[in-house]
Specification:
The chain has 399 residues and is an alpha+beta fold. It folds into 2 domains: 2-202 and 341-395, no CATH class; 216-321, no CATH class. The protein has 13 helices and 14 strands. The chain has helices spanning 9-13, 16-26, 32-47, 54-61, 67-76, 83-96, 158-161, 164-170, 181-195, 213-222, 262-266, 327-350, 361-385, and strands spanning 101-110, 120-124, 129-142, 147-154, 203-206, 227-231, 236-239, 244-249, 252-257, 259-261, 272-274, 286-293, 301-307, 317-320. Strand 5, helix 10 (213-222) and strand 6 form a beta-alpha-beta unit. Helix 3 (32-47) packs across helix 13 (361-385) and helix 9 packs parallel to helix 10. The longest helix has 25 residues, at 361-385. The radius of gyration is 24 Å and the shape is globular. The chain starts with 8 loop residues before the first helix and ends in a 14-residue tail after the last helix.
Amino acid sequence: MADLHESAALESALDAPMSAFAQVIFGHMARADQRRWAEVYLRGLLTTRGRKSVRRIAATVSRSPTAAMSLQQFVNASPWEWAPTRRELTRLAERGMNPRAWTIGNAILPKRGDYSCGVHRRFVPAMGRSINCQVGTGIFVASDDMAIPVDWRLLLPEEWTEDPGKRLRARIPEALGCRPMWAQVLNLVDTLASRTTRPRVPVVADMSECPEAEAFLHGLSRRGHQFVVAVRPALQVVGRAAESHRVVRGASLGRVQRMATARDVVRRPGARQWLAAGEGRHPQVQFLSRPVGLPGVGHTYRIFSEWYSEDAPSPRVWITNLVDHHIDHLMALTRLHAGTLAALVSLERDFGLVDFEGRSFPGWHHHMTLTSAAYAYSRLSRSAGAGGEWLDLSTCVSV
């Protein structure tokens, strides 16, 4: 990184708000060269047009012939921790917006070859075909206006966790094994709960393609989280309206739960209700709602779904433990998931989420952290732009 002194013009090219932002989220880095390249990479993600490869970023922000090599080294090999940056992103996101939920989003990152950490063959329903890809799961701090990614996990199939050679080449931590998707998401929720300085908000997630969503729901319930989660229509639930009946089993009385799928329960007669007209919403929207239980769990939940017509495609079925909340509030929380999907599209299209060329586990996390930081700066500064200053970052610097 000897060319840092040759690129002194970079510092003057960075505007003051961006430099202040970089100081806050990268200030934990031990070395000055790490902090400098983090800011350079951040600016490159924000200003490079088209594909955000390391080479194109370097050409945008520096005239040094070795800048690309230095940036590649910084992202892939430099030993900086990403957790402190994500902690600061959480703090700034919560300070710069009015969080209404923690939302979950999955990023499908297509890859050529088999050497990038975690890459595997996977059927992607949105594409209708199987592709080579990495799967990243992110947790977002979401408001009515935006969703900011603040933490990520990389799905590691057994072919990666059980192969010592692959683990060594990709620098996968020794203690990290193969975890199902629901466990990855629950770990993200646990981590964010340990970092937030605000009251907890509901968890909103789409687990409709997860065959073990029940384990996720049980985990959230045990931790005392409020949640609104999309589940597969075939999820087995206990209908609370006619929940069970008593039968004699030998000398004792037992209870037999009447099991049904979420789809069947929510479509039973009497489940359909009108949703009062609201701003920006068609007055004829209806919803389906039923109280239910889950097998082996004593809590009461509510499943609900929007309803259009008999011949319309089946909408998502959601389950929540916010049983006393108005359906209008629940529907508003589900719409935050759509905002998270829009944020993922922007991260992929405008901030280089899918453009990372490195192969290591730390490199992937470094890239996702830097991409999230660029997106957060763009959204938060744009949000405050009409009102003047971005944020009073002098009050945010860690001590």
